[in-house]
Amino acid sequence: MNEYVTDTMALILWLENRKFNKEIKKIFKSVLSKESKIYIPPICLAEIGYLSEKKKINIDLIFLKNYLEQNQNFLIAKLNIETFINSFKIIDIPELHDKLISGVAFSLGLPLITNDPVIINSKYLKTISF
Known about the structure:
Helix content is 50%, strand content 15%. By secondary structure, it is α/β, with parallel strands linked by helices. Strands 3-2-1-4-5 form a 5-stranded parallel beta sheet, with helices on both faces. Helix 5 (81-87) packs across helix 6 (96-108). It is globular and about 35 Å long.
């Protein structure tokens, strides 16, 4: 089974049914068919809550909760002390939220789905860009 980590923007684009490239769309669809798993860093929940509160996105945390209950191969990743330690080993990503999201992928040894150029250029991560 293939496993991935998603960043906030990729998750939002998927949940709001916005435009994706074919490779990323295929990955997300494979999660729905239970062929793959996608881990969601907990910081993504905070970012979705914030963006929803500011009316910058159309989904909110209740929508996400219901979606996750119906699609159980989307999993909330653990954010524990080891993840924090690994996050701060990633010295080429300065922004805190991005560092924590990247730290989840780094800790799990999984590729991160992102379109952030700073994360894509990190020497610590394997990424799949959209």
